[in-house]
Design brief:
The complex is a heterodimer. Chain A is 79% helix and 3% strand. Chain A is mainly alpha-helical. Chain A has one domain. In chain A, strands 1-2 form a two-stranded antiparallel ribbon. In chain A, a hairpin with a 2-residue loop joins strand 1 and strand 2. In chain A, helix 1 packs parallel to helix 6, helix 2 packs across helix 9 and helix 10 crosses helix 11. The radius of gyration of chain A is 19 Å and the shape is globular. In chain B, strand 7, helix 7 and strand 8 form a beta-alpha-beta unit. Chain B has one domain: P-loop containing nucleotide triphosphate hydrolases (Rossmann fold, 3-Layer(aba) Sandwich). Chain B is 33% helix and 25% strand. Chain B is of the alpha/beta class. A 6-stranded mixed sheet of chain B has the order 6-7-8-3-9-10, with helices on both faces. Chain B has a 4-stranded antiparallel sheet with strand order 2-1-4-5. Classes of the chains: A mainly alpha, B alpha/beta. Chains A and B meet through helix 7, helix 8 and helix 10 of A and strand 6 and helix 4 of B.
Chain lengths: 289, 248
């Protein structure tokens, strides 16, 4: 496969993963928690490096998962102790991220990881970092990592679809029905942590938030059904990847930046023209026929 | 006495050390419609939420058919206030009613055709069958309330807690709700309804629980819903009730 194809495939996998997980974040009004986790997983990655002394897929996933869930737990705990929810999020993720930054600077000479890379990602390098089995290349590592996380995400959503749905729509009702809402919450946060860390290399900590939230918020404008919203959101992620990559090659600009900008453009266009909830439709409805 | 559908013993609830409910005790016999009446801030919704463990109780116990509520969750259905959920959620009326079946379907399993059929029947009972496929934000307030009631029906519980089901609904919906309450009663269900329209209390409910942080009075409507008790509950602020609406 060509260089371009690998990049498009990577970006599309990021788009699909983020679109699926992001849909539930948007519906549960937890968009900002994705901002928190996308930053604090940096600590998980550094922590994983300190223990395993390499930056390989599995240890990174485990590190991110632990810190992601820790973030969720600490936010919940502070909130229960009477701290405002948004303040709790702000305190927890900045602290964990800062610890990550300090640790990175400590190991800066020994590890290929810097803060800029962590924040912005560099999808252009993805195709060269290949996984080899028995001396033969079987494609970029990022693809395998993203594919693996996608399998987990799809499994969780299919397996717990109705539980995710009811706990997102009516939390109290879910509790009275004996749905394990706390477990569901942590599973979702686990999915978010894995998705973030797998997307990290390609789009970085800040742009992954764009990929999580914007396509989902856009899909919300287009559909009335949760299942359609999930597919639509993943599709918009892929579409933005294609458009963004094209823009990046034509104008020779940052690929991940161009992809994130594309999600924003698709959102604003949808905000106007979406058939049911678009602004144009609302205006037409108001003005007398 | 503990074999009554619902027994609440000495329940006390506090927010930030401020007592919201104090020493609330009552029991409800089978097949009764019970109105929970009291002014704003009397702790009516809190009572329901504390019984359902959404908010912690400082003291007290809740027994459902002789067992602690925690063991009998499946017997209790809850109809929250309409504004407690986001009606922009991407789902339709049928899907919401189907959620009432989730407890019966079991964790991680898919709804079967019987469940969908039952959800349709429940929608039909509240006159909402024509709207089954409609997105829920496209329904009127009364229609949304009826969807919630259909969901409660689908749950097929023994006891129902309903938080202000009559608020902001049209006359047709009010009639539909009353009809439904009576049907539940004839099927031997016990229903607790937070209500604030004093004029309709005598028509709708067999029992009343007059609440203002404490239980002011509890018992059969005929004997308890008196002028004195109402004045005591509302701190002497009720003047508009004509004698036809109350007892004595």
């Amino acid at each position: 496969m060509s260089y371009t194809m690998w990049i498009l495939l990577t970006a599309s996998l990021v788009g699909i993963n983020c679109g699926l997980v992001g849909t539930f974040l948007v519906l549960r009004k937890m968009s900002m928690l994705s901002d928190a986790i996308s930053h604090s997983v940096l600590l998980g990655i550094v922590g994983a490096y300190m223990i395993s002394h390499h930056l390989q897929g599995v240890s990174m996933l485990v590190g991110a998962l632990i810190v992601g869930l820790l973030t969720t737990f600490l936010v919940q705990w502070l909130h229960q102790k009477g701290v405002q929810n948004d303040a709790a999020i702000g305190v927890v993720f900045t602290c964990l991220f800062a610890i990550g930054v300090v640790l990175i600077s400590l190991f800066a000479d020994r590890v290929h990881l810097d803060v800029e890379h962590a924040l912005m990602g560099e999808i252009a390098f993805v195709p060269w970092d290949v996984l080899e089995v028995g001396g033969k290349s079987i494609g970029p590592k990022a693809i395998w990592l993203l594919g693996f996380v996608l399998a987990i995400n799809i499994f969780c959503i299919v397996f717990a679809y109705k539980e995710l749905k009811i706990s997102s729509f009516d939390h109290e009702m879910a509790v009275t029905l004996g749905i394990p809402v706390v477990l569901i919450h942590y599973v979702l946060m686990g999915m978010l942590s894995l998705t973030t860390v797998a997307s990290f290399d390609s789009v970085g900590a800040i742009l992954v938030v764009a990929m999580l939230i914007v396509p989902s918020a856009t899909a919300y404008l287009w559909t009335d059904r949760l299942s359609v919203m999930l597919i639509c959101s993943a599709f918009i992620g892929v579409l933005a990847s294609m458009i963004g990559y094209t823009i990046a090659t034509v104008f020779n600009v940052s690929i991940s930046g161009a992809i994130a900008v594309s999600t924003g453009v698709i959102f604003f266009i949808s905000l106007w023209i979406a058939p049911k909830y678009g602004l144009l439709r609302k205006w037409l409805k108001k003005s007398p026929a | 006495m503990k074999m009554n559908p619902l027994v609440v013993e000495q329940m006390t609830v506090a927010y930030d050390r401020q007592l919201v409910l104090e020493d609330v005790s009552f029991f409800i016999p089978k097949g009764k419609l019970v109105g929970v009446i009291g002014p704003n801030g009397a702790g009516k919704s809190t009572l329901m939420k504390a019984m359902l463990n959404f908010i912690p109780r400082m003291h007290g116990h809740v027994f459902v058919y002789g067992q602690p509520y925690e063991k009998q969750r499946h017997l209790v259905g809850y109809v929250p206030q309409r504004n407690s959920v986001d009606w922009d959620f991407p789902t339709n009326a049928l899907d919401v009613v189907l959620m009432g079946r989730y407890g019966h379907i079991g964790l991680w399993k898919r709804p079967k055709k019987e469940d969908v059929d039952m959800a349709m029947q429940c929608l039909d009972k509240v006159g909402m069958l024509p709207y089954a496929k409609r997105q829920i934000s496209q329904l009127s307030g009364g229609q949304q309330q009826r969807v919630f009631l259909a969901r409660a029906l689908a749950q097929d519980a023994s006891i129902y807690f309903m938080d202000e089901p009559f608020v902001g609904v049209d006359a047709a919906t009010e009639k539909a709700i009353v009809q439904l309450l009576n049907e539940l009663k004839t099927r031997g269900k016990t229903v607790l309804v937070v209500h604030h329209d004093l004029q309709t209390v005598r028509d709708y409910f067999d029992y009343v629980l007059l609440l203002n942080k404490r239980v002011i009075a509890f018992g059969e409507t005929e004997s308890v819903f008196t002028y004195d008790h109402i004045q005591k509950t509302y701190g002497g602020k009720v003047t508009f009730l004509s004698s036809t609406h109350i007892v004595g």
